[in-house]
Structure formats: structure tokens, C-alpha cells
Design brief:
Elements lengths: L4 E6 L2 H23 L2 E5 L6 H8 L11 E5 L1 E3 L9 H8 L21 H15 L12 E4 L24 E6 L4 E6 L1 H4 L4 E6 L5 H9 L18 E7 L11
Parallel strand pairs: 1-9, 2-3, 2-5, 5-8, 8-9
Antiparallel strand pairs: 4-7, 6-7
Helix pairs in contact: 1-2
The structure holds 6-phosphogluconic acid.
The site of 6-phosphogluconic acid has 15 residues, from strand 4.
Length: about 250
């Protein structure tokens, strides 16, 4: 576990999302005051939806939307109109309700039937936006992540090829158990961020969370264990249910 890991245990999911929203607003305003812009990569799945709703409602006034640039850490290999699309989830929960310029939104082109080509195109988008030199890695201000009951994060699933990737920024990762490709940031991108925040809620994640945070297990089996920013913060926002098996519950 990296030196600057914070485990924030909140009593309820609502408190978890409120605390995470506070951190997003804090990080956004700090980034804009120090660097003129805020770059954030979003996670998919079900957990962050309530956070996005909150940012689009209560925190609407607090975020510098015109200086905020949205990316995705992973995407399902489906068009943006598909019910499984992470882009669609965020569009409906937040982006359609806030004054963010369309040019600030960089979704993964997952409608491309060629998943590898879609990953390559998104890597090009990252390299252009962050003006990276060859071999450079983008440094996001904040990357939001979730964790699956199997310990996967972004679309880095246990035992999959993407876990070995050392130079690519975005890959099409074949996930045998889902019989599909997923588009995903690689570990070099996750671990180059200024801050990575996990949002983990519910008892179905408790055993895995204990293994990831407190037990010796391989990152190959529990990819969330491999997230450790080299020069940045790692924050776990977890609710009491997800923390129920941790030795430190508060
Ligand atoms: C995705 C996600 C994935 C997610 C976990 C947790 O596309 O599914 O990015 O990594 O964060 O699967 O999902 P839940 O929040 O739905 O439990």
C-alpha cells in the first residue's frame, strides 16, 4: 500500500458520495488555481452514478465546469447510446445537466467495432491533449475508480493481458469471463495521477476490500492492489458495509 493511502470509512452510501463530491470540488478548484484547468478521468459501473448526480445538483455551483476536462478510465465495447455505456451513464447523470463545454468532454470511441483501433485512437487523444512526448504518460489531477467483487478496477480484470502493459496508455483488454473486449487505461496512467479515488460501497465488496487493503495477495488476482500512485494520493472512500471486514472500521 503506498505511503499516502487514506481510507475514509463513511457510515452510509450518501455520506460516501457527499465526501467524494467534496474531494472532487476541492481537487478541481486547487487544480484550476494552480494550473488553470482540472483533468478528471471517470469510472463507470453503478457506484459513481450517485456522485455524478450530486455534482450535477448540490455541487453544481462549486465546480469550474468550463475549466474541467472529462475523460473515462474505461469503457464497455458498445456505442455511446447503449444502456451499458459508461459515457451514457455519466451523460445522463451529470453532463447533460451542467454548463460544461462539449469540447471539454473526451469519451472513448467505443462504437468502433475494432476495439484495438478504438484504444489506439483514445491514446492519441490523450497524447495530444496532454502534449506528451514519446513515451510520456499523462498526469491526471484526479482519477475515479471502482472495484468489482473480483478485485478488478477500471477494466483491468484478474489474469488479463492488460495487467502486464508497461508502455501503452489505453488498451483493448479481452475479458474471457465477459466474452468481450473492454477499453481501459493501463496501470502506468493510473499510477501517474496526482490523486486516485476509489469509491466502494456495499457488503458484496467487503471480503475483497479486506484482501486488497489488508492481506497479502497478488495483483494479478486482485488488480486493485496494483493501483499505487508513484507521486500522488490514494483515497479509498468506502461505506460501513464495504468496510465491515476491515480490521480498522473507522
Ligand atoms: C465498469 C467500471 C468498473 C467498475 C466496477 C465496479 O465499466 O464497470 O469502470 O471498473 O468500477 O465494476 O462496478 P460497480 O460500481 O457497479 O460495483
Amino acid at each position: 500500500m503506498s505511503a499516502s493511502t487514506e481510507i475514509r470509512v463513511l457510515t452510509t452510501p450518501q455520506e460516501l458520495f457527499a465526501a467524494a463530491a467534496e474531494e472532487v470540488v476541492r481537487a478541481a478548484n486547487e487544480a484550476v488555481s494552480q494550473r488553470g484547468r482540472f483533468t478528471i478521468a471517470l469510472s463507470g459501473g453503478s457506484t459513481p452514478k450517485s456522485l455524478f448526480n450530486l455534482l450535477a445538483s448540490n455541487a453544481k455551483a462549486a465546480l469550474p465546469w468550463d475549466r474541467t476536462f472529462f475523460f473515462w478510465g474505461d469503457e464497455r465495447h458498445v456505442p455511446p447510446t447503449d444502456p451499458d455505456s459508461n459515457y451514457r451513464m455519466v451523460e445522463e447523470a451529470m453532463l447533460s445537466k451542467v454548463p460544461v463545454p462539449p469540447g471539454n468532454i473526451f469519451r472513448m470511441p467505443a462504437e468502433n467495432p475494432d476495439a484495438a483501433a478504438a484504444a489506439e485512437a483514445y491514446e492519441k487523444t490523450l497524447r495530444k491533449f496532454f502534449q506528451l512526448e514519446a513515451g510520456g504518460v499523462p498526469r491526471f489531477d484526479l482519477i475515479l475508480l471502482g472495484m468489482g467483487p473480483d478485485g478488478h478496477t477500471a477494466s483491468l480484470f484478474p489474469g488479463t493481458a492488460a495487467l502486464q502493459e508497461k508502455s501503452r496508455l489505453v488498451v483493448a483488454n479481452w475479458v474471457e469471463k465477459l466474452k468481450t473486449h473492454r477499453l481501459s487505461f493501463t496501470l502506468p496512467v493510473l499510477n501517474a495521477a496526482r490523486c486516485v479515488a476509489f469509491l466502494v460501497s456495499g457488503t458484496d465488496k467487503a471480503a475483497t476490500l479486506k484482501t486488497v487493503l489488508e492481506e497479502k495477495a497478488s495483483g494479478e488476482q486482485y488488480p486493485s492492489k496494483l493501483v499505487s500512485p508513484t507521486d500522488g494520493r490514494l483515497i479509498w472512500f468506502v461505506d460501513r458495509a464495504a468496510a465491515s471486514e476491515l480490521s480498522t472500521k473507522s
